[in-house]
UniProtKB/TrEMBL annotation:
One of its GO terms (molecular function) is aldehyde-lyase activity. PANTHER family: 3-OXO-TETRONATE 4-PHOSPHATE DECARBOXYLASE-RELATED (PTHR22789:SF0), FUCULOSE PHOSPHATE ALDOLASE (PTHR22789). This is Fuculose phosphate aldolase. InterPro entries: Aldolase_class_II_sugar_metab, Aldolase_II/adducin_N, Aldolase_II/adducin_N_sf. It comes from the Bacteria.
Length: 231
C-alpha cells in the first residue's frame, strides 16, 4: 500500500490521482494553471516509472490545463528519440516540448528522479528579477523544499540551460530557479513534485510579502533543518 493510501471497506482510497502517469501529470497541469502558477502552455511536465529508460513528456504547444493522455510523447531518456506508443493515445502528437533537453539532462543526472516539473511561476521569477532569494518560511517549506538553488540565465530550450540545471540537481537539490525563466522541480513521484511546486511558490509569495512590508525574514534554526529526514 502506498504512503498516501488508506484502507476502506472492500478496497483502497487514494488521495492522489492513481494509475497512468499521464493522468497524474494532467492533474498537475490543471491544478497549476487554476492556482495561477502557470498560464496556458507556459511550462512542461514529464514523468517515468522507476528505473525506466523512457519518460512521458508534454508535447510541444499543449495547454497545461487541457492535457489528456494524447498530449504526451514517449521519449528515450538516453537518446531523446520519440518512442512509438502502440495505442491511439500516441497518435495525435509526435513532437515533444522544446524544453526536452532540460528534462532528459535531469533524469540522466539523478537516477532517483521520476518526475520533472518546469513552470514559470510569477512570484518566484519576480524575486529572482529583484535579486532576492526565496526564504523557507514554514516547516512545510523546509520539509518539502530543503534548499533552493538558482542558475544563471541561458536561452530556454538550450543545451546550456539543461546542463546548468542538471549540475544544480546533481547534489540532491530538488528545486532550481532558472533565472529570468522559470523553475525546475524534481521528485521521485509526480505527487511529491506537485507538492514541492506548490510550496515553492508559497514560500516565494511570503518572502515577497515580507519585503513589501519592509521586514526581513530569518531562516529556520539550523538544528531543525539538520534534523529533517529525506522526504
Amino acid at each position: 500500500m502506498g504512503r498516501d493510501a488508506e484502507p476502506i471497506s472492500g478496497g483502497t482510497r487514494m488521495n492522489y490521482v492513481p494509475g497512468d502517469l499521464r493522468d497524474q501529470l494532467a492533474h498537475v497541469g490543471y491544478d497549476v494553471v487554476q492556482s495561477g502558477l502557470a498560464v496556458g502552455s507556459g511550462g512542461n511536465l514529464s514523468a517515468r516509472e522507476p528505473d525506466a529508460d523512457t519518460c512521458w513528456v508534454t508535447a510541444a504547444g499543449t495547454w497545461l490545463d487541457r492535457l489528456s493522455r494524447s498530449g504526451f510523447v514517449s521519449v528515450g531518456v538516453a537518446d531523446g528519440e520519440p518512442v512509438p506508443v502502440p495505442e491511439p493515445y500516441g497518435a495525435r502528437f509526435t513532437r515533444p516540448t522544446s524544453e526536452l533537453a532540460l528534462h532528459l539532462a535531469v533524469y540522466r543526472a539523478r537516477p532517483d528522479v521520476n518526475a520533472v516539473v518546469h513552470l514559470h511561476p510569477q512570484t518566484v521569477l519576480l524575486l529572482d528579477a529583484l535579486g532576492e532569494r526565496i526564504r523557507l518560511v514554514t516547516t512545510d517549506h523546509a520539509f518539502y523544499l530543503r534548499r533552493v538553488a538558482t542558475v544563471p540565465f541561458r536561452p530556454p530550450g538550450s543545451i546550456e540551460l539543461a546542463g546548468l540545471a542538471a549540475g544544480a540537481v546533481a547534489d540532491g537539490t530538488d528545486c532550481v530557479v532558472l533565472s529570468r525563466h522559470g523553475i525546475c522541480v524534481t521528485a521521485d513521484s509526480v505527487e511529491l513534485a506537485h507538492k514541492r511546486v506548490r510550496n515553492l511558490e508559497e514560500a516565494a509569495r511570503l518572502t515577497y510579502a515580507a519585503l513589501v512590508a519592509g521586514r526581513s525574514l530569518t531562516d529556520l534554526p539550523d538544528d531543525f533543518l539538520d534534523g529533517l529526514t529525506t522526504v
